[in-house]
Amino acid sequence: xxxxxxxxxxxxxxxxxxxxxxxxxxxxxxxxxxxxxxxxxxxxxxxxxxxxxxxxxxxxxxxxxxxxxxxxxxxxxxxxxxxxxxxxxxxxxxxxxxxxxxxxxxxxxxxxxxxxxxxxxxxxxxxxxxxxxxxxxxxxxxxxxxxxxxxxxxxxxxxxxxxxxxxxxxxxxxxxxxxxxxxxxxxxxxxxxxxxxxxxxxxxxxxxxxxxxxxxxxxxxxxxxxxxxxxxxxxxxxxxxxxxxxxxxxxxxxxxxxxxxxxxxxxxxxxxxxxxxxxxxxxxxxxxxxxxxxxxxxxxxxxxxxxxxxxxxxxxxxxxxxxxxxxxxxxxxxxxxxxxxxxxxxxxxxxxxxxxxxxxxxxxxxxxxxxxxxxxxxxxxxxxxxxxxx
Length: 390
Known about the structure:
There is one protein chain. The protein has helices at residues 2-6, 8-17, 21-26, 70-78, 120-130, 135-148, 164-176, 194-211, 222-228, 246-251, 256-261, and strands at 30-41, 44-55, 59-63, 85-90, 93-94, 105-108, 182-186, 214-219, 231-236, 239-244, 266-275, 278-284, 287-290, 293-294, 303-308, 314-317, 328-339, 343-349, 355-361, 375-380, 386-389. By secondary structure, it is an alpha+beta fold. The chain has 2 domains: 18-256, Rossmann fold, CATH 3.40.50; 269-389, CATH 2.40.50.140. The strands form 4 sheets. A 6-stranded mixed sheet has the order 6-7-8-3-9-10, with helices on both faces. Strand 1 and strand 2 (44-55) form a beta hairpin. Helix 5 packs across helix 6. The protein is elongated and about 80 Å long.
């Protein structure tokens, strides 16, 4: 009895059973919650006081560059790593020292981790067999999972006989067959070629909608996160910078890192100023623009950055004279013209030597209407601009 009482796993299970009713009430509709979670490896802080609430049935992505802490966060939810401090809850229950097989989650890895000596059916059935599920139920659940991922009829094939996309579907079926409360996916499409990866993005989102399971997805690919996610958490250097819907993250970045990491943006330096129209920034000389949002803490007279997406920059001939009164207007010189199919990308030089990018859809065969060396007028709506800290 003394050994059992000293077991940290048993102590944690008893503590989890005593979680108060208020905490459970607060977690209603929340599949996964991280409360001020920290993870240190020696002197290195991999995850730095991260708090996240992931809704039941949500496709939630952890997005950031390599080394930002997203995979470590996922591994802590899975139970492969233990938090240094803070708390992780799944459906309102603290997980603490619970090992992966005792948590209501399954994980899909980038390398699939399929058993090469087993066929598709046996790979998918393996977890159920280990649980002692009756054979008749295993057959039903395996075939149901294979049909869900469009692999019906391939159950006798070995992994080496499958394409990369098919192997990924086997890994998904193996995870879904256990009917987890939460499915964790660690860059599962990273090994696929670009065309297949894009196709699988749509399939994954459709699959998640069909099964209704909470997906927590780790990726460094911004387009992938924007395509599939209901919400995105952007991380950098172990810290959580911003959480929001894809449109919110893209259109309303709250820091230089998020603006620069998600898609493409222009970051034009200038001095913070103000006018009757509101806070703004002096880009050069008399070129001044207000902005729809200013990062908290910036003061008049400080240096800042104007963030404006290339597709929000409208390009007109040098003699254009019909700029709406509320629009910012500056002169520029075309430096580069890059045809990219659906649109043309321009590199444009402002009078102070600073360059920015503009994009315009191609409305005529062959692309853009402006040439290198040509003088143009640039316009943008101040509501599409944001002023950020350098």
